[in-house]
């Protein structure tokens, strides 16, 4: 036992380490993508803006949009949406608009812990569009959405106690097939009312018998219609009635027939246990059913034995759940199932939980038929086998979903770029599966997906879909999808209430902050997330980061990232919102220092930017005066940054005077600078004033000295004061030889001596 425990612990550690590694890889990839994105924004922000009229050709841009894998293909702005009625828009845009409203409602419900059935809501949204449900195909997207609703148990039909999440999905798939068969039964009865002879009866059993009258019309009088059984022996339909009741989802009626009929008296308790346990019968019951199958197969078909007695063998095979019996039944009767739905219902009804690994070798005849067996069988065939070479494109993802290969089905649909917009459905199916936290159960046999991989894959699909809205300026909708992308890696619905495990909560928080940071960087992002004022309590950010300290820390981190990426305006605005005035002033001083250096080197953008930066700095200082609850440390830092701002203003004024040709005035201002020892009227003394300057001022000093020397060359020295200023500059350079200033500055000083 100690060795087994040690192995189990090692396996748990390995799994945890693998999940941590995969999450780290995902985060690194995301950081690289975000860094590239922010750098591209920084480059774009330096380009001149050009007004593009709505009628201008956008052929190249539209070509790029059409090539996006997860493109919802919605219109690019509110004006174009309003100008085109919904009825006249393409199917893809209709779906995107309808599904988008559902996502909003889903997020709102999850925030408030209200009940919400997303799959059903998406199905109703699709139905409200009035699209052609099937278009001549056997499987339409509405049918797939109904299957999604059944898989998630939103109709409560698949709810069973004491079964695993995977088996709950299996039961949901089976119930969907039963719903479909019920529709088929009703359509058959309506198409043959005379043969059905339903009369005024509306019970489930009466419907099945009406259906059998049509189906078995060539076999003679059926037992439930016989008036005098002695004159003409009727056809016994006991097993047919039980089978079709089960196939249509009428479980109570199937049990009732089994209990009342003499032919199925021994089968009744087995069926009762199968129904009450959700298919998870005991090993003893499975063994009894398997033995009965063996007896029937040994006897073989007798002469004159009715064909429909095969239903008895089929029902016992289902109860047995034996892989051997199921494989033999399919081999013996390959043509019994007329549709793939009938075949899959039979297989899903027989599926059992995978046996727990142990040292005990199971009897080959009692080995259960598992979901892995079903998936392995279905995956032997290429997708074209199911879609009839593309003529019925949704059959393959439909089969994948029915066999609980959830993520492969979503990935298959997400690659579709046709006019029907199945890639739009795929993104919203990923939202549903992630919300219910079932992705780890439906990765599919043989697929290279771990639990974390499945969540990350679904999150990526949702995020890429939301990023399309972001690129088209619809930040509000992008936010709704980004929130779902973060919830996907956090465990879905559980992550909203904090009931997920610690790793999932950490992953959700990390991704949510990354995505919100991306939104903030866009034009209008601050207004949407933070509102007209404050740190988000009046905007959308307060919905997802409810704690004020958490919001402030997030905004400070975002401002730091924007500053590193060169998005200084964003950084300054956010720092002002959180009351980080010293940090905002430091950013302004850095930008002002860079602008002064650019101005000194003759770049045109330096002069146009400096006035705006000084104005922003003065506004921040004015806000600082009236801001409540300023700490002593912050107050001290703001005053220090104010000094730096004034020093940079003084340097800027000297550059402007020199450019205007006012050389004498510029020289006078240089001599007045209190932070440099250049006043000819003061005695020389050794000091480290330069080292005490802010770095933002230090980088401006070499260009300032060049300007001063240039002005000295253009002014006549009448009283020797200019000579003294040259000496001051030379001494200042001599005292700071370790600064590695430009060589031409030293040469210029040497020529003036």
Automatic annotation (TrEMBL):
Pfam families assigned: Nic96
Keyword hit for Protein transport: yes
GO terms of biological process kind: poly(A)+ mRNA export from nucleus; protein import into nucleus
GO MF, any single term: structural constituent of nuclear pore
Cellular compartments annotated: Nucleus envelope; Nucleus, Nuclear pore complex
Domain of life: Eukaryota
Keywords: Membrane, mRNA transport, Nuclear pore complex, Nucleus, Protein transport, Translocation, Transport
Keyword Metal-binding tagged: no
Gene Ontology CC terms, in alphabetical order: nuclear pore
InterPro entries, sorted: Nucleoporin_int_Nup93/Nic96 (IPR007231)
UniProt similarity note: Belongs to the nucleoporin interacting component (NIC) family.
Name of this protein: Nuclear pore protein
